[in-house]
Amino acid sequence: MTPRHTLLALLVVVLWGFNFVIIDEGLDGVPPLLFLALRFVIVAIPAIFLVPRPKAPWHIVVLIGLFLSLGQFSLLYLSLAAGMPPGLASLLLQVQVVFTLILASVTLREKPRRMQIVGTIVGMIGLGIVISGQAAIVPLLALLLIFAAALSWATGNVITRHAKISSGLSLVVWSALVVPIPSFALSLLVDGPTVVGDALAHLSLAAILSTVYTAVAASLVGYGIWNSLMARYPAARVAPFTLLVPVIGIAAAWVVQHEQPSVTDIIGGAVMLAGLAAAVIVFDGRRRGPAAADGLAAPLDLPAPTAHEVGATTAR
């Protein structure tokens, strides 16, 4: 990758890493499902009037929206609201790589490589270390919700792989239309009209800024850059940058919210990320042509994989 594109990839990592703390700050005084609805309204509008519809059947777009956006982020928001520390959330959500590998193996008959199996086992050992250190601190419900969010993300990855979709920002924008109405309706049902109305009438500056950041910076800008990089370079060169997201997420939570990781968290997280790195970084030992060696897999004007496909794309 060129230095400029490397810096752009690192910018995305920073945007996504800070996203967890910013979501957690914005949730103060706003029901999580209502907060989610507000985010995806901004993601979809006015972008749908500027971005062409993805070249995919509507039912596929809807399923992707249900699992990658509504499922993943509603469960993530609920987990944070239930007491999951944002720094830890940024780490545990990476379990989606393991879930994607398992689901792809079962449903798509994709046989995992030996290094992927070893990496998955190492990653699960690291996860066990983290959980053992947090079992008495983090509520069980919050842990279950974050793992459900990772499973939802992985399910969306496999659906996208099965449908053989290769599109970029358009899929992110148009699938976002699936989120606002169901999440708003669920918020009315769970929190009640009075709570929802009061939250909308008294939105804090922190909630507004958080919504704008998550929609514009994390979703539109972050995914836009990421999709372009995924179109230009082989996935194995770009995808490993996502393993830096928990590092930024934990550091941001440490600085902003004084969420200091324990020794167990650091050791377990390091083991987990090392295992995931081994599982997702698949090196191709075959000879490549000059263009491939330079990382020019495709021009930028070709459709790009979505940012959510990272786990699935690299789990081959």
TrEMBL record:
Superkingdom in the source lineage: Bacteria
Entry GO terms, CC: membrane
UniProt keyword annotation of Mitochondrion present: no
Keyword vocabulary terms for this entry: Membrane, Transmembrane, Transmembrane helix
Transmembrane annotation, as ranges: 33-51, 58-82, 88-108, 115-131, 137-159, 171-190, 202-226, 238-256, 262-283
Compartments reported by the entry: Membrane
Xref: InterPro entries: AA-Vitamin_Transporters (IPR050638), EamA_dom (IPR000620), EmrE-like (IPR037185)
Domain EamA: 7-131, 141-278
UniProt topology in membrane: Multi-pass membrane protein
Family (UniProt): Belongs to the EamA transporter family.
Full protein name: EamA family transporter
Species per Swiss-Prot/TrEMBL record: Labedella endophytica
